[in-house]
Amino acid sequence: EEKRAGPASTLYCADGDDSLYPIAVLIDELRNEDVQLRLNSIKKLSTIALALGVERTRTELLPFLTDTIYDEDEVLLALAEQLGNFTMLVGGPEYVHCLLPPLESLATVEETVVRDKAVESLRKISQEHSPVDLEVHFEPLVKRLASGDWFTSRTSACGLFSVCYPRVSSTVKAEIRQHFRTLCSDDTPMVRRAAASKLGEFAKVLELDYVKSDIISLFTALASDEQDSVRLLAVEACVSIATLLPQEDLETLVMPTLRQAAEDKSWRVRYMVADKFSELQKAVGPEITKNDLVPAFQNLLKDCEAEVRAAAANKVKGKRLNIMLPFIRLIQYTNQHVKSALASVIMGLSTILGKDNTIEHLLPLFLAQLKDECPEVRLNIISNLDCVNEVIGIRQLSQSLLPAIVELAEDAKWRVRLAIIEYMPLLAGQLGVEFFDEKLNTLCMAWLIDHVYAIREAATCNLMKLVEKFGAEWAQNTIVPKVLGMANDPNYLHRMTTLFCINALSEACGQEITTKQMLPVVLKMSNDQVANVRFNVAKSLQKIGPVLDNNALQTEVKPVLEKLASDQDMDVKYFAQEAISVLPLA
Amino acid sequence: MEEESDTRKINNSFLRDHNYATEADIISTVEFNSSGELLATGDKGGRVVVFQREQEVENANNSQRRGEYNVYSTFQSHEPEFDYLKSLEIEEKINKIKWLPQQNAAYFLLSTNDKTVKLWKISERDKRPEGYNLKDEDGRIRDPSTITSLRVPVLQPMDLMVEATARRVFSNAHTYHINSISVNSDHQTYISTDDLQVNLWNLEITNRSFNIVDIKPANMEELTEVITSAEFHPQQCHTFAYSSSKGSIRLCDMRQAALCDRHCKYFEEPEDPSTRSFFSEIISSISDVKFSHNGRYLMTRDYLTVKVWDLQMENKPLETYQVHDYLRGKLCSLYENDCIFDKFECVWNGSDSVIMTGSYNNFFRMFDRNTKRDVTLEASRENSKPRAILKPRKVCIGGKRRKDEISVDSLDFSKKILHTTWHPHENIIAVAATNNLYIFQDKVN
């Protein structure tokens, strides 16, 4: 953290009692060529301000900072953040307006994150302004930004109206409303987007009459903007506006616009409606949901654009299911992307529907999806099996599950195989030992000799998790013999897999199995003709060492490691020596 | 330009006048910004030069002096690179420059080579902080024991400095060569286009782009068509057009679907069987497509013509202008020297009433859409002095040659004008002739 120029820190140490010195370094480093040092100094800005005192902070430090907007984004971002917490350092709320000029210039830079942070800090310090200061200093700044030449400043203004509105006189309030109106019809879409995204927030602080008169007309205008990038933001605002209005006004003031959005020509707007569906539903209440939203939602599920259908499918959970079910069935006949989105949520429905409904309506869908041609759809079903298990028990599915799993396990794409391996422990837990031994064990062993390393690695890890689940005795009977058998495989990669498995399993299997069954195999492999196997023996011994007792370590492990330490191969030597130094052999 | 082109004055020629022209100096793109105050050029050496118009001065003899363009900023935008995976050299040549709408006091432009688009910020600085605690004015380290008070740096005025900084690098999205970029009217996104794909980017996000058009066939053997250029509609943020090597233009509506592989309009002129030849397909390939400023028309340039299309009429162009029809008889030799594959650009004037495009022998052409008059002008050092008036040129085919006419056989095909740009509001044009940039403007008064 305390990264500083070399000579400076030496001098600092030599002259430690001079308290000005570290501050002097910090101030100078505000302009250091190294951005990391500048950033460090900016992050300690409060230390500098404390040392300078409130007076000099106001008259010297802040004017300097106001003009440092040439810096890198990360420095500006840190500065914008610091200034939000600077009130006490400039002399308390009485002087808080001194922070406005630097934040104002930060609110006009091109980098959105910096501008947003500056606006956030401005919002924060607005609360520290007295009502008078708010009208004398803060509100003029908002106006300046709102009528600025560049759209960066106008976009920043949009986020400031709502914080000053509740605390100013009614004349100023009228001005603020006027400014907001102007920005909603700004020439540049950037500004209209900023206004649209703050519309809901602004509506919340407005008096209800003005919400009805001003906000609704702005909302309607933005929702029919020529640019779809603006229209889609109006959908978001719709949620907050609808919450503010009494139920009887919703139909006339909000619904026409919302209906229009759900049928917008642009898929991005419809997508937004689908995506915000749950929020919209809450905001408009049950009556309108039933009459208006549900039909609209059904259309979105059938939308011609896959992205929209997928967003809608994702929101199926929590909908009125008797209405939705026909449409869920319909989705089977649409494209992959949507099906896989549906598959990821459909399993969750079983908890809502209960046992009987699940068996009647959803089970056929699960089964159909388990046979889907797209592996992603099948995976999404399998990965959410736990929800169904709770409701109907997995046995209902097991007959269909198995072929699906086997097929995925042998998929040509290794990433698909990898994904199914990751669900194995979960499946094993739900299907039980018997079923596992009978049907899945072979698969798990086959992955150990997969030709892709990532699969072999995952298979090893999978074995460890299975042993954790089923216990050491099960491991000794079913897994360990097969793993150890691979030590004699002609392929050295398979021999190495034995070692990797032993690394993973020794701890879960415990001292007895490790010492009696695994260790002899490992030791024997120290004579392997392939150097890679030999140095992995050294690594394995280091790994399983802690599980072994001292006797085995001294009489069996030590001689072998010493032999390996004088191996011809450099790497074998290296890892043997490393093991010797790590294990308590002396 | 009320096409009194013959009385045009040369305002400012050979800004980039070098006695020796190295390959790297060849200008590869020119572009005015939206106000016309700045003009950017890119070259084969990966450099971008930005020119700024001098402030207009009202002078005493009440004759207004129009501002000339002076170098404002020069920077190295792209460096040569090597793709180690494919063993390919990536040239630093700037294929296109596009200005962003102005958002604050700084200027922003996108520049692209074959693979990587970069967003540049060009900003001014006229103040410098002064005063250190640990050093004195001459930069000597002060004895720490003498530091008894703190100094806060003070900003002092200094000579204007123009800085160019790379703000974003958009890379790794194109397998083929980027031929065009276009900024959307939503001020938020842009597209980059290569031979087979159009990618949509958010200007603030560099690690992700959306592929909105992909014409790559499953089997590359079946490839018959490539994308040659693409542009966003000037007002409708959801519409863009792309042109193809087969002479067609597709208009896509991004509202319809996330993937625009289905076009909503398809502009193509049926081929005239009587002129069909071996070269038909090559010369019908569109090298540039441009929306008119009002968004009603599309202009396309192919090897021999410029065409104007009405967006409401897909089956044939509204207007067709012959750029250098006298080359029709020389296609064979133009094929042999590869000139037939030259990619000429075309531009509209500010009011969409005149169009301009380049030709060979340092000639460029202008067509007035209303009067149907056209003119051939020459950008060359020999024939033009600063503030001289450009004379119209004429090319004749074979036979007798009148005075001032040039025979088609004596045209110099190595001197080609591929890149031109027109000031957005005024009659000022910039013409790139290999390594020279010529700026011409309408005669004053």
UniProtKB/TrEMBL annotation, chain A:
<feature type="repeat" description="HEAT">
    <location>
        <begin position="518"/>
        <end position="556"/>
    </location>
</feature>
<dbReference type="InterPro" id="IPR055231">
    <property type="entry name" value="2AA_helical"/>
</dbReference>
<comment type="similarity">
    <text>Belongs to the phosphatase 2A regulatory subunit A family.</text>
</comment>
<feature type="domain" description="Phosphatase 2A Regulatory Subunit A helical">
    <location>
        <begin position="99"/>
        <end position="280"/>
    </location>
</feature>
<dbReference type="GO" id="GO:0005634">
    <property type="term" value="C:nucleus"/>
</dbReference>
<feature type="repeat" description="HEAT">
    <location>
        <begin position="215"/>
        <end position="253"/>
    </location>
</feature>
<dbReference type="InterPro" id="IPR054573">
    <property type="entry name" value="PP2A/SF3B1-like_HEAT"/>
</dbReference>
<feature type="repeat" description="HEAT">
    <location>
        <begin position="254"/>
        <end position="292"/>
    </location>
</feature>
<feature type="repeat" description="HEAT">
    <location>
        <begin position="176"/>
        <end position="214"/>
    </location>
</feature>
<keyword id="KW-0677">Repeat</keyword>
<feature type="domain" description="Phosphatase PP2A regulatory subunit A/Splicing factor 3B subunit 1-like HEAT repeat">
    <location>
        <begin position="286"/>
        <end position="354"/>
    </location>
</feature>
<feature type="repeat" description="HEAT">
    <location>
        <begin position="99"/>
        <end position="137"/>
    </location>
</feature>
<dbReference type="InterPro" id="IPR016024">
    <property type="entry name" value="ARM-type_fold"/>
</dbReference>
<feature type="repeat" description="HEAT">
    <location>
        <begin position="22"/>
        <end position="60"/>
    </location>
</feature>
<dbReference type="GO" id="GO:0019888">
    <property type="term" value="F:protein phosphatase regulator activity"/>
</dbReference>
<feature type="repeat" description="HEAT">
    <location>
        <begin position="557"/>
        <end position="586"/>
    </location>
</feature>
<dbReference type="InterPro" id="IPR051023">
    <property type="entry name" value="PP2A_Regulatory_Subunit_A"/>
</dbReference>
<feature type="repeat" description="HEAT">
    <location>
        <begin position="293"/>
        <end position="316"/>
    </location>
</feature>
<dbReference type="InterPro" id="IPR011989">
    <property type="entry name" value="ARM-like"/>
</dbReference>
<dbReference type="Pfam" id="PF02985">
    <property type="entry name" value="HEAT"/>
</dbReference>
<feature type="repeat" description="HEAT">
    <location>
        <begin position="401"/>
        <end position="439"/>
    </location>
</feature>
<dbReference type="InterPro" id="IPR000357">
    <property type="entry name" value="HEAT"/>
</dbReference>
TrEMBL record, chain B:
<comment type="similarity">
    <text>Belongs to the phosphatase 2A regulatory subunit B family.</text>
</comment>
<keyword id="KW-0853">WD repeat</keyword>
<dbReference type="InterPro" id="IPR036322">
    <property type="entry name" value="WD40_repeat_dom_sf"/>
</dbReference>
<dbReference type="GO" id="GO:0019888">
    <property type="term" value="F:protein phosphatase regulator activity"/>
</dbReference>
<dbReference type="InterPro" id="IPR000009">
    <property type="entry name" value="PP2A_PR55"/>
</dbReference>
<dbReference type="InterPro" id="IPR018067">
    <property type="entry name" value="PP2A_PR55_CS"/>
</dbReference>
<protein>
    <recommendedName>
        <fullName>Serine/threonine-protein phosphatase 2A 55 kDa regulatory subunit B</fullName>
    </recommendedName>
</protein>
<comment type="subunit">
    <text>PP2A consists of a common heterodimeric core enzyme, composed of a 36 kDa catalytic subunit (subunit C) and a 65 kDa constant regulatory subunit (PR65 or subunit A), that associates with a variety of regulatory subunits.</text>
</comment>
<dbReference type="InterPro" id="IPR001680">
    <property type="entry name" value="WD40_rpt"/>
</dbReference>
<dbReference type="InterPro" id="IPR015943">
    <property type="entry name" value="WD40/YVTN_repeat-like_dom_sf"/>
</dbReference>
<keyword id="KW-0677">Repeat</keyword>
<dbReference type="GO" id="GO:0000159">
    <property type="term" value="C:protein phosphatase type 2A complex"/>
</dbReference>
